[in-house]
C-alpha cells in the first residue's frame, strides 16, 4: 500500500489531466494548428478525462459487500435468451442494428451488475461469450460475402486451391510457406462441407469467442484475481479489434489468438510448482511457438515491438516495486525469456530457408523512404459527378455522437481510470504490473489519431492483445464505485459495449451508422459475388491479359483463379488505361473505389462516381458483357477520360 502523501498526490492527477486536456485543445485552437472540426472531434479526450475523473472520486477501489438478489443461473438464461433472440431478429429483419443496439447494452449491464456483487465465474463467462458470439453471428448473417480489407478473397481462393490440389505449394501469395491458417480453414471446410468463405468466417467467429474464456484465465493468472479475470474477459467484448477480426479472419488473426494462448501458458510456466509441470508446459509452449512461426511471420515482428516496449517496464519494476517475501519477477529470468528467444531463433532459421517477400518489401520500402531514395505518393481522391460534403463543425459534432465517438470517449475514460488506479494502489498490482503498464502505454494507439497511417491496423491489433490488461484494471475500478454513483459506471460499460458493435470499424458495412461519408466497399451480396465470378470467366476467355479494373473486383477475381494485369488509373479528367477491356460494377456509385493492388503499386488513387455519370457513360460505351451488377466495356484504343464527362456531349468511351 502506498503512503498517505502519495494518495493525496494521486487525487490531483485526474484534475490535472482534465485541465491539461482543456488547455491543450484551447491552445491548438488559439494557434490555429488544427481546424475547428478536427478540434471538436479531439474533444473526445476531454470527455473521457471528465468521465474518468468522476469515476475516480466516486470509487476508492473497494467493492460493496453485496450479493445478487437474482440467482446467476437465472441471469444466464436471460442473457442467453436475449443473445439468441437478437440473432433470430437479425435473420428476420435483415438488419442487426436495432436488435443489437438493444440487446448488447442490456446484456452488458447485467454482466456488470454481477461483477460488482459476488460473481459466478462460469455464469459471467458464459454470458460474455454468448454476447460476443451473437454480435459476430449478426454481422455474418447481414453481410453476404464480407471481405473487409480484401484479403479474404485471397484466402478463400487459397483454401479452394489447397483442397483441390492437396499440396501447399499451390497456394499463392507466398502463403505456401506459412500455411497453418489454410490448413485449419481447409480442415473445417472438408469436415463440414461448407463453402470456403463460410468455413473461414465461422472458424474466426468461434475462435474469437473462445478468446473470452481465455482472457478470463489469462487475467486471473496474471493478476491473481478472479474479478480481474472477469473484467479481462469483459475487455474482449468491448474492444473493437477483437469484434472486427472475428469475421475479417486472416492469418494474423489466427496468430494473435495463438499469441494469447502462448502468454497464458507462459504465465503458468512461471507459476509451475514442480519440475514435471514446468517441463510439460515448456514443451507445449515451444511447440506452440513453432506453429506460430509458420502461421504468420509478420505477427512476430509486430509483437517484437510490444516486447521492446515492455523491456523498460521490466527493468524499472524492481525500483518501483521492491521485492518482498513472496514477490516474483524481480529481474529478467530465463523462465520469462525462453519462449521468445527460442521463437525468434526458429523464426530466423525459417526465414533463412524461406525468405518472406512481404517482409522484404516492407523493409525495402521503409528504408527507401527513410533514406530518400524512394517515395510513396499520397493517394488522391477524384470525384466524378459527385459533390462530397465538406468538413464542418456540424459534422464534427455528429461524429462525437456516433458509436465511434462514444467508443473513443469511453475507451479513453477507462484507460485513464486504469492509470489513476495504478497510481493510487500500485502495490495491489505487483502481479501483472509489467503487462498492465506496457498495455497502458501502448493503448493510446487504439484511440483515433488526427492523421491516417497506412497499415496501422495491423499494429493496433497486436496492441489490443496487451490492452486487455489495463482495460481490465480500469473496468475493475469503474465497477467498484459507491452505490450512489453506480449508474454512471453501468452507463459507461453499457454504452461502450453497445457502441463497440457499431463503430466505423466493426460496422463498416452498415450505411449511415458512422456519418454520410462514402467508404470503400467491404462486402458483396451472394448474387454480386457470383456475377463477378462469371465475369472473370468471360474476360479470361476473351480479354486474357488486356483487362483492367479496380482493386476490389480484381481481388474477387482471385477466387475464380484469374487476375486483371493491366493498370487502371484515376486522373482529374477521368479513368485511364491502355487495356482494351474495362470491368466496371454498379456498386462503384455507392462507395469510394480504390485502385492498385498493394502499397507498392504505382497507382494508389481513389475515385467516387455518381449514378448519372455511370449511366451516361454506359449509354455511349461498347458493352460486350453485362450482368445485373457487372459490365465489361471494350475499346480497341484503350480508355481515356472514362466518367470524366457528364454525357451531355456526344463522345465515345475513349473520351
From TrEMBL:
Chain ranges passing through the membrane: 12-31, 38-58, 70-90, 97-115, 199-218, 283-314, 334-351, 358-376, 396-420, 432-453, 459-478, 485-505
Keywords: Membrane, Transmembrane, Transmembrane helix
Signal peptide segment: none
Domain of life: Archaea
Protein name: Dolichyl-phosphate-mannose-protein mannosyltransferase
Lineage start: Archaea, Methanobacteriati, Methanobacteriota, Stenosarchaea group, Halobacteria
Amino acid at each position: 500500500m502506498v503512503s498517505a502523501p502519495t494518495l493525496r498526490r494521486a487525487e490531483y492527477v485526474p484534475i490535472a489531466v482534465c485541465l491539461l486536456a482543456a488547455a491543450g485543445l484551447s491552445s491548438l485552437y488559439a494557434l490555429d494548428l488544427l481546424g475547428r472540426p478536427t478540434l471538436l472531434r479531439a474533444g473526445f479526450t476531454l470527455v473521457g478525462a471528465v468521465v474518468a475523473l468522476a469515476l475516480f472520486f466516486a470509487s476508492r477501489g473497494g467493492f460493496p459487500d453485496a450479493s445478487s438478489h437474482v440467482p446467476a443461473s437465472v441471469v444466464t438464461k436471460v442473457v442467453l435468451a436475449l443473445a439468441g433472440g437478437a440473432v433470430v431478429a437479425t435473420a428476420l429483419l435483415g438488419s442487426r442494428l436495432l436488435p443489437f443496439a438493444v440487446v448488447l447494452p442490456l446484456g452488458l449491464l447485467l454482466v456488470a451488475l454481477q461483477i460488482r456483487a459476488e460473481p459466478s465465474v462460469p455464469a459471467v463467462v458464459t454470458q460474455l461469450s454468448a454476447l460476443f458470439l451473437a454480435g459476430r453471428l449478426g454481422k455474418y448473417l447481414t453481410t453476404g460475402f464480407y471481405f473487409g480489407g480484401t484479403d479474404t478473397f485471397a484466402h478463400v481462393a487459397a483454401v479452394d486451391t489447397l483442397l483441390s490440389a492437396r499440396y501447399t505449394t499451390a497456394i499463392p501469395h507466398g502463403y505456401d510457406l506459412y500455411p497453418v491458417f489454410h490448413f485449419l480453414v481447409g480442415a473445417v471446410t472438408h469436415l463440414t462441407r461448407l463453402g470456403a468463405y463460410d468455413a473461414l468466417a465461422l472458424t474466426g467467429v468461434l475462435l474469437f469467442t473462445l478468446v473470452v474464456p481465455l482472457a478470463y484465465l489469462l487475467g486471473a493468472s496474471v493478476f491473481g484475481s478472479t474479478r480481474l479475470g472477469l473484467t479481462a474477459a469483459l475487455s474482449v467484448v468491448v474492444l473493437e479489434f477483437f469484434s472486427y477480426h472475428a469475421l475479417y479472419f486472416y492469418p494474423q488473426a489466427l496468430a494473435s489468438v495463438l499469441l494469447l494462448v502462448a502468454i497464458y501458458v507462459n504465465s503458468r510456466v512461471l507459476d509451475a510448482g514442480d519440475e514435471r509441470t514446468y517441463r510439460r508446459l515448456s514443451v507445449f509452449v515451444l511447440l506452440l511457438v513453432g506453429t506460430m512461426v509458420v502461421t504468420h511471420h509478420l505477427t512476430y515482428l509486430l509483437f517484437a515491438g510490444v516486447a521492446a516496449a515492455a523491456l523498460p517496464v521490466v527493468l524499472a519494476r524492481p525500483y518501483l516495486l521492491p521485492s518482498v517475501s513472496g514477490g516474483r519477477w524481480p529481474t529478467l529470468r530465463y523462465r520469462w525469456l525462453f519462449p521468445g528467444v527460442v521463437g525468434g531463433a526458429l523464426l530466423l532459421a525459417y526465414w533463412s530457408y524461406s525468405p518472406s517477400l512481404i517482409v522484404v518489401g516492407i523493409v525495402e520500402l521503409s528504408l527507401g523512404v527513410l533514406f530518400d531514395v524512394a517515395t510513396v505518393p499520397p493517394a488522391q481522391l477524384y470525384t466524378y459527378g459527385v459533390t462530397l460534403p465538406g468538413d464542418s463543425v456540424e459534422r464534427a459534432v455528429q461524429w462525437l455522437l456516433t458509436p465511434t465517438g462514444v467508443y473513443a470517449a469511453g475507451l479513453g475514460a477507462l484507460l485513464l481510470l486504469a492509470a489513476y488506479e495504478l497510481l493510487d494502489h500500485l502495490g495491489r498490482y505487483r502481479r501483472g504490473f509489467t503487462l498492465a503498464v506496457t498495455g497502458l502505454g501502448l493503448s493510446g494507439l487504439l484511440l483515433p489519431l488526427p492523421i491516417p497511417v497506412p497499415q496501422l491496423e495491423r499494429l493496433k491489433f497486436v496492441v489490443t492483445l496487451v490492452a486487455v490488461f489495463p482495460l481490465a484494471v480500469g473496468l475493475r475500478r469503474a465497477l467498484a464505485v459507491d452505490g450512489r454513483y453506480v449508474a454512471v459506471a453501468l452507463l459507461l460499460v453499457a454504452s461502450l459495449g453497445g457502441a463497440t458493435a457499431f463503430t466505423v470499424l466493426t460496422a463498416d458495412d452498415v450505411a449511415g451508422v458512422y456519418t454520410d461519408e462514402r467508404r470503400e466497399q467491404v462486402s458483396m451480396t451472394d448474387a454480386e459475388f457470383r456475377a463477378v465470378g462469371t465475369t472473370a470467366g468471360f474476360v479470361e476467355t476473351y480479354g486474357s491479359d488486356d483487362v483492367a479494373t479496380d482493386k476490389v473486383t480484381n481481388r474477387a477475381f482471385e477466387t475464380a483463379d484469374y487476375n486483371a494485369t493491366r493498370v487502371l488509373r484515376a486522373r482529374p479528367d477521368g479513368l485511364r488505361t491502355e487495356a482494351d477491356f474495362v470491368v466496371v460494377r454498379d456498386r462503384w456509385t455507392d462507395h469510394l473505389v480504390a485502385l492498385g493492388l498493394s502499397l507498392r503499386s504505382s497507382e494508389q488513387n481513389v475515385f467516387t462516381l455518381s449514378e448519372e455519370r455511370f449511366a451516361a457513360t454506359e449509354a455511349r460505351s461498347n458493352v460486350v458483357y453485362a450482368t445485373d451488377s457487372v459490365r465489361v466495356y471494350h475499346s480497341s484504343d484503350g480508355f481515356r477520360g472514362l466518367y470524366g464527362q457528364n454525357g451531355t456531349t456526344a463522345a465515345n468511351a475513349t473520351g
